[in-house]
Each structure stands twice: as structure tokens, then as C-alpha cells.
Design a protein that fits this description.
alpha+beta; 20 strands; elongated; single chain; 362 residues; binds adenosine-5'-triphosphate; 5-stranded mixed beta barrel
Length: 362
């Protein structure tokens, strides 16, 4: 057993191959006790495989996985003491809701009175105290997912993993369930490992997010760091909206890197790692970090408005910037008169050193 500061889960050089196909080449990952960690990435990037290796529904091809300081690579799923929630609920349709939730307690041989009390407690926790007698088919999608959550929590597992649990719900219900999940996490202090391909869901819910790409973690960081300091062009493109301009490093100074864009213009930004002159890079800058200026304002880029799109709370102005290419600028809180017409000549300026200079995706 380990102390409360040590990670609850450790992956060390973990690999997984399906036949000749290597889904996970070599994964290192520490999951902190009590954290809400999200595995985020595009379809096929290895999120579910990582979760399956943790739960024991798939066995690793190599490497070490530790849970609470003990090795579990060869331990069967039912002995790992991990609660699991899937997108498609996986409730037993022929059992009542209460029987579904009682199931993990019964297989552990608890007394009838304890089972009844714990089931009631779990039902109350997911706000469905009066639905114990129903069959899962008589509940809505959101209610069924709450039951699945109650069933995963009822036996007080060491951690709980959730694979796209809100994927089948409509937008409003999904947001409501996100709030409930967050509240439960706070209230119970249990470690939650969550899989999604929805970046806004990941940013909203998580203490940390691991961004997966081709079976590797591109970046593991807090939502704020991922958004403000993406470590690669892939992360910059995957998290939120970004303008990405490709170019070559011209000069590296102490706190700034000059990049010659492929279209000839010059941009300055902060490097995410060590870069050298001549290296191919991508400059990332968020639409909300760009501002409109007068067409000939000194220090601004010159451009012409190509498109204006209204989003209710903001406008997005697409501008063809000289020597740079197409840039999206987000205008918030501006009155309609400040929004330029398509075809207008404008300037674009940046509030400080807001460009991130990132290595090009390999
Ligand atoms: P999604 O968001 O679509 O669920 P994911 O990031 O969870 O994707 P995985 O399901 O982990 O991705 O799959 C990773 C890779 O491994 C994919 O290329 C997938 O086709 C492959 N893969 C997964 N399971 C198997 C399997 N049982 N047999 C063969 N290949 C598999």
C-alpha cells in the first residue's frame, strides 16, 4: 500500500497490440489520488484501449500497471475493484433498478440489510430515490445513466472509470449530467478517469486532461494550461479554436522567436520548447487574442475582410492578412457598428506576446 501523496494509478512503458497492430506503443501515466482525469483525443487515438487496460477488460502486451502500489497487469477485471460506466449504460434489462444497483454488492456477499441500505443511499445520491422499483427500460436515457453511475459507485470502488458516459444524451441533458458528475466528484472525493472526444466537456470537467494522438499522450496538463500553453500544433488545433500559420524560425531571442510565415510575413511568439533557426514550425494564436485596428495603424498586420459570421454573443471576422494568410478574429461585446464589412481594409493587432510557436506535427 502507498501513502496518500503517491499516485493511485501508474502506467510504466505500457503497450498494447491487437494482432500486428500496435494501438499503444509505450504509455507512461500517473493518475493522482482523487483527481478527475480525462483522456481526450480523436477517434482511434487509444483512449478506450487505455481505459480497458486499466479495468482489466484488455490485457497489456507489455509494461507495468500499478493500482495503489500493487501490480495489476495480470489481475482479472473483477478483482481490480474499479467501478465502470459505459456510454450504452449496460444495465441488466430484466432486473429492477434497485436489483441492478444491488448486483455488485450481492456478488461481494453483503447482508440483505446492508445491500438495501446502500442501494437506497446510492439512489438518493443520483436523485432517483423513488425509481428503485422500475425496470431500466422505463427510465429516460439520463436516468439510466445515473443508475449506471450509482451501480459503479455503490461498492465504494478504489476509482471509477467512465467511457463516453454522456455521449448518447442530448446537449441540455449532457450539460446537466456534467454538473451532477462534477458535484459527485467533489462530494465523494473519488478518483475519476473519464474518456471523451469532446474537448469542451474535457475542459469543463477535469482537473487534468491527457490529450491522446496515435496511442501516445501529446500533452498532460490542466485545462487552463492546455488552452493557454499547448505544447504541440496537434493540441493547439484540437483544443478550442486557433489560427495556425506555418512557417520557419528566422531568429531565436531570449523571450521571443521570429517566424517567417510561408506566405512571407513575419510573426513573433513564445516558443513552447527549444527551437532553432531554420526549423519548420506552426504559429498558433487564438481568435480572441487578435484585435481589429485601422487599416494603416503602425505595428498592425494589414488585411482585407473575407467573411463575417454572427454567433449571438460574438462575431467572427475572417481576414486575409498580407504575408500571413487567413486569420479568424473574434469580436465580443462590440456594438454592431464596430464590425467591418466584407471587403474592407483593416489592421490586425495582438494584445502582447500571444502567439505560441510550436513544433510542426510529425
Ligand atoms: P473512439 O473515440 O472511437 O472510441 P479511442 O481513442 O477510444 O477511439 P481505441 O478504441 O482505444 O480508440 O482504439 C485505438 C486503436 O486500436 C484503433 O485504431 C482501433 O481500431 C484499434 N483497436 C481497438 N480495439 C481493437 C480490437 N479489439 N482489435 C483490433 N484493433 C482494435
Amino acid at each position: 500500500m502507498s501513502n496518500t501523496n503517491s499516485p493511485i494509478v501508474r502506467f510504466r512503458g505500457v503497450s498494447k497490440a491487437y494482432g500486428g497492430f500496435v494501438a499503444i506503443p509505450s504509455l507512461d501515466l500517473d493518475i493522482a489520488r482523487g483527481e478527475f482525469l480525462t483522456l481526450l483525443g480523436p477517434s482511434g487515438s487509444g483512449k478506450t484501449t487505455t481505459l480497458m487496460l486499466l479495468t482489466g477488460f484488455e490485457m497489456a502486451s507489455g509494461g507495468v500497471i500499478e493500482l495503489d502500489g500493487g501490480r495489476i497487469e495480470t489481475c482479472p477485471a473483477h478483482k481490480r475493484d474499479i467501478g465502470v460506466v459505459f456510454q450504452n449504460y449496460a444495465l441488466f434489462p430484466h432486473m429492477s433498478v434497485a436489483e441492478n444497483i444491488a448486483f455488485p454488492l450481492r456478488v461481494r456477499g453483503l447482508s440483505r440489510a446492508t445491500v438495501e441500505a446502500e442501494v437506497q443511499r446510492a439512489l438518493a445520491m443520483v436523485h432517483l430515490a423513488d425509481k428503485g422499483g422500475r425496470r431500466p427500460g422505463q427510465l429516460s436515457g439520463g436516468q439510466q445513466q445515473r443508475i449506471a453511475l450509482a451501480r459503479a459507485l455503490v461498492f465504494k470502488p478504489r476509482l471509477i472509470v467512465l467511457d463516453e458516459p454522456l455521449g448518447a444524451l442530448d446537449k441540455n441533458l449532457r450539460e446537466q449530467m456534467q454538473d451532477e458528475l462534477k458535484a459527485l466528484h467533489r462530494q465523494l472525493g473519488i478518483t475519476m478517469v473519464f474518456v471523451t472526444h469532446d474537448q469542451s466537456e474535457a475542459l469543463t470537467l477535469s482537473d487534468r486532461v491527457a490529450v491522446f494522438n496515435h496511442g501516445r499522450i501529446e500533452q498532460l496538463a490542466t485545462p487552463g494550461d492546455l488552452y493557454r500553453r499547448p505544447a504541440s500544433a496537434f493540441v493547439a488545433e484540437f483544443i478550442g479554436e486557433n489560427n495556425l500559420v506555418s512557417g520557419v524560425v528566422e531568429q531565436v531571442a531570449m523571450d521571443s522567436v521570429a517566424v517567417r510565415a510561408d506566405s512571407g510575413g513575419l510573426l513573433h511568439g513564445v516558443a513552447s520548447g527549444s527551437l532553432q533557426a531554420g526549423e519548420a514550425v506552426v504559429v498558433a494564436v487564438r481568435p480572441e487574442q487578435l484585435e481589429l485596428a485601422g487599416a494603416n495603424d503602425p505595428g498592425s498586420l494589414s488585411g482585407r475582410v473575407a467573411q463575417v459570421t454572427y454567433y449571438g454573443d460574438s462575431y467572427r471576422v475572417d481576414i486575409d492578412a498580407e504575408g500571413i494568410g487567413r486569420l479568424k478574429v473574434k469580436l465580443t461585446g462590440s456594438d454592431d457598428k464596430a464590425v467591418p464589412e466584407v471587403g474592407a481594409a483593416v489592421g490586425i493587432c495582438m494584445a502582447g506576446n500571444v502567439c505560441r510557436v510550436l513544433p510542426k506535427n510529425k
